[in-house]
Design goal:
single chain, about 475 residues, mainly beta, Jelly Rolls, Tachylectin-2, Chain A, eight-stranded antiparallel β-sheet, about 0% helix
């Protein structure tokens, strides 16, 4: 095999198989999208200050506390509050009586802001950040609705507007008309923004990116490009973007957009009226699902590797109305082998609620081999560490063997396929061993390839440690 001119150094970082970054050749194998499984209702929008248009949810794991922020109401002229819920496990949620905002003549509610429907929060993990600014958020300015203003908080509940002036002005068409995501990137060493915009000539909703070193002064927004079109125009409307660092591989940003299909209906008028008799926002005129995209730290490129639905609408007329099935912002660990994401359901219906769904750790996608078997060979790369760890699953009949090769493709003596005992099982952290053991430290820092021979198996991630 020819030598690659640029050899990435993955160090000891975890690599997920959500894109082709490490993959050189798939022979009898393929990248497989996995689908989250229903795990019950997280919260119902059933309070007087909430309604069927509750939306734009963010979920964070903050130490031992899970925090949730969402728009409580959008109906009529009443306040459109930002609401807060919390959990000790990410499964069972409570809406605390915060007594911060008066709604309907009472402060016994879980509202944190009276009128701010697109409030998007993150925990600022930047070293040296003042305690009073440990939590940050952005929202559309109520005075200048097409701009973003900043907020800070010491506890994630009581918020102060950073300043009256916007921190990010509108520069693109349809800018910020959705949930706009900010976070501190440990990998990039700066704050990052992913924001809504409209591709003017194509009239397609898309995403742009900007960065900041201080949360106040931002670079110009750069429209993201998409792998499936090779341009800044995505192949479909992406209403939200929900882009954020994956907690086990922060150089990989997971994006879970709500994909909307305008003027595409699955229901008859009668069926739509049955679940959404007086629609405010679309009703049965269009349908939505959730998709998986990824991007890597420091780039302006989305990999739209999987065009198939990540979150399908599912059985029931209620799942086939406008703007339902949108994933919330945030993927969090909720068990030893489980992570959770949250999905908007029954939007614009009296039964509006937020579902929890689960995946195995790292389980967005995998290199998959059928029973017939196949191989995957990586591009050349460098690493640091002394052991190779894989997250994998096989059937009782299946298995995986691993070979280390020189960059040229020549097997390294002591690490060949024939010297690797078959790996059978289902583990998040399995150390690969050969007949001589699992120590690969002597190969650290030099270009290598990995060859995986697989049968009825999935490989979700790898790292050296």
């Amino acid at each position: 095999m020819p030598q690659t001119t640029e050899v990435p150094d993955i160090g000891s970082q975890r690599e997920l198989f959500v894109d082709h970054y490490l993959i050189d050749r798939l022979d009898g194998t393929s990248l497989k999208l996995h689908h989250p499984q229903p795990a019950g209702v997280a919260i119902r929008y059933n309070q007087p200050w909430e309604d069927r248009l509750a939306f734009y949810t963010t979920v964070l794991k903050d130490g031992d506390i899970y925090r949730m922020y969402y728009r409580g109401s959008l109906m009529g002229q009443r306040p459109h509050p930002t609401c807060y819920a919390e959990s000790g496990d990410g499964i069972h949620w409570t809406k605390p009586e915060l007594e911060l905002v008066e709604l309907n003549g009472s402060t016994k509610n879980n509202a944190i802001l009276r009128h701010n429907g697109q409030f998007c929060v993150f925990v600022d993990t930047r070293s040296g950040v003042p305690e009073a600014e440990r939590y940050k958020a952005n929202a559309r300015d109520q005075q200048q609705p097409s701009s973003l203003v900043g907020y800070t908080s010491a506890d994630g509940i009581r918020w102060t507007k950073l300043r009256d002036e916007p921190i990010v002005p509108m520069v693109l068409e349809n800018n910020f008309d959705s949930q706009n995501v900010m976070f501190w990137s440990e990998v990039e060493g700066c704050y990052v923004l992913y924001a809504r915009h409209m591709v003017s000539d194509a009239r397609v909703r898309s995403t742009a990116r900007a960065t900041s070193t201080d949360f106040v002064n931002w670079t110009e927004q750069t429209p993201m490009t998409f792998s499936d079109t090779g341009s800044t125009t995505p192949s479909q409307h992406l209403y939200t973007n929900q882009t954020h660092p994956y907690f086990r591989a922060p150089h990989i940003y997971i994006s879970l957009p709500g994909r909307i299909h305008f003027d595409r209906s699955a229901l008859t008028e009668a069926q739509s009226a049955e679940v959404c008799p007086d629609p405010v926002s679309g009703g049965g005129a269009d349908i939505s699902d959730g998709v998986l995209l990824t991007t890597r730290a420091g780039t302006t490129h989305y990999d739209f590797t999987f065009k198939e639905s990540f979150v399908r609408p599912g059985i029931g007329y209620n799942n086939w109305t406008s703007r339902t099935n949108y994933p919330a912002l945030g993927v969090v660990q909720t068990g030893a082998s489980e992570m959770s994401l949250y999905v908007q359901r029954d939007y614009d219906q009296q039964t509006a609620h937020l579902d929890r769904m689960t995946l195995r750790i790292d389980g967005f996608a995998s290199v998959n081999a059928s029973y017939a078997g196949g191989e995957m060979v990586t591009k050349p790369f460098r690493f640091s560490g002394k052991e190779l760890e894989i997250n994998y699953s096989t059937s009782a009949a299946g298995g995986i063997r691993v070979e280390v090769q020189e960059a040229s493709g020549v097997p390294v003596t002591g690490y060949t396929l024939n010297e690797c005992p078959e790996i059978i099982g289902d583990e998040l952290e399995r150390i690969v061993c050969w007949e001589s053991g699992g120590d690969v430290n002597r190969l650290a820092g030099i270009p290598i390839r990995l060859r995986f021979a697989m049968k009825d198996a999935d490989l979700f991630s790898l790292r050296f440690r």
